[in-house]
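# nightly structure sweep
# worker-07 picked up a monomer target from the shared queue
# config: single-sequence mode, recycle default, output format = structure tokens
# input follows
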Amino acid sequence: MANVVVDRLLANGVTDVVLAPGSRSTPLALRLAAAEREGAIRLHVRIDERSAAFLALGIAKVSRLPIAVVCTSGTAVANLAPAVVEAAYAGLPLIVISADRPPELRGVGANQTIDQVGFFGQQVRTAVDLLASGQDAQAPATWRKVTDRVIHDAIGLGHRGPAPVQLNVGFREPLVPELGSGQSPLATADISDLTPPKVMREPINFAVGDLGLAEIPARGIVLIGDVPSPEIAGQAMELADECGWPCISEPSGNALAGATAIPAAAVLLADEEFRTSHAPDFLLTVGRFGISRPIMKLVALADHHLAVNVGGKDRPDPLRTAATILPAVPRPPDGDPVVGRAPRDDRWLRDWLTKSSEAQQRVGAAIADGPFSGLAVTATCWAGMDSDDLIFAAASRTVRNLEATMTPRHFPPWVIGNRGTSGIDGLVSTAWGAAVAHQRQSPDGRTVAILGDLAFLHDHNGLLAPSVEQRPNLTIVVADNNGGGIFSSLEQGDSDFVADFERVFGTPHDLDLEEIARAAGITTTSVTDAEQLAVALGRDSDGVQIIIARTIDREAEQSQWAGLLRGR
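# output follows
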């Protein structure tokens, strides 16, 4: 059965498998090791199942290919759950292959056995128990068909985009092949029919007409959240430019390269007077969005809202204001005789561009004149990256700092993050996997991951890669302010809760992160200002390195942010 599973992975174009070691998964592990020796697959081994799953997720996020993670039975399966959830909401083709006991050993107290058939519930598109799918003379043929179907469901054939899946495989003892029995030849890939069809894009005229409007409004806005590809970001920017609409992009929207780009949007929209006087007549949102409260307040003010779903399991409409969900970014306006275009309002766009420029100047001044903060970290990283580089941005305070400091560039680096559920778990491993995939696509490019200190500590097991595996070109920049900085900006950061704040929200760790990183055998350095960070980022590296950026404390950083949002 292990031979069938691995061969169908190869036949369906799976290039990478991440394996967490265990006993019950022995048949799969040995077959994968043989495939690696023959150069048929790239095998990654991790001792921590959670890190293994996020590593696979990172490879899938950048490559957009189906990636498998293999684990043994019992709680090993449960440790994959966070990555499976992220894959579900981000729309990523993660294939979970969970080894299991045979049916006769389930539910009877057998060691290291849990009920893992369908363990992930609604988080996976398909969950199949392979051993129960065929136990007669035709079993191998049935296993092949079932495995193919599971992989195709992950890719998204016949569905709306990729999704995670589970293939549960029960093995009876003996778990190793008889000596001298050999193994059948490995399968070769045949992926000619494994590309899901492209979704048709209608002109914006049609979408606006469906709202009952007679013309395309002049006072429109395009808001881009998390998108999976440069193609979608480009389509959104093209539409905004053609219509003369401000284009607001979250970091992983990657849409600040157009003529109508509005950087530092969260800072400028903190101005309530501007926000209310510039409420859009029409709003198009693309992908999952919502990192900024000021931007969400703008969304709530829009007269008409259309949303575009670019993948993942949820409706991308957190305020429930979208009239409908489109399957693709609309094309620019055409000469539709029924739904025309309102005369272009140049003042509308000019107001946004002017206000955005003022917000950028305030951010730049706060960084230049102020102490070394998380804003300075993201600004320095953004300025030091080339167009063939990749930025992986953590959730929480980090992505908000990046949103405030990203400047428009014609050829910017690509930005990604775990925006499906915006957790801080598994980020080191996800960044490592992203770097592995990015290095294959852009051999001269590098990956820089920007994390907070708690996110780094949450997944420092992700640094524990076997010494025999090649290291990707990955630099991890950790903004260390000794705790959870984001909470100071939320309601629980008010003085009314000061007695309990540090204990249950700030959670200072008081650890030397440089020592922790070095304990994992990773080259590490510490910096205390933006100039030192720029120098460290500029050093040549062909492996993994960590830069600990020792920033100001959380109270001082929140004060800096509060000044920006007040317009000072």
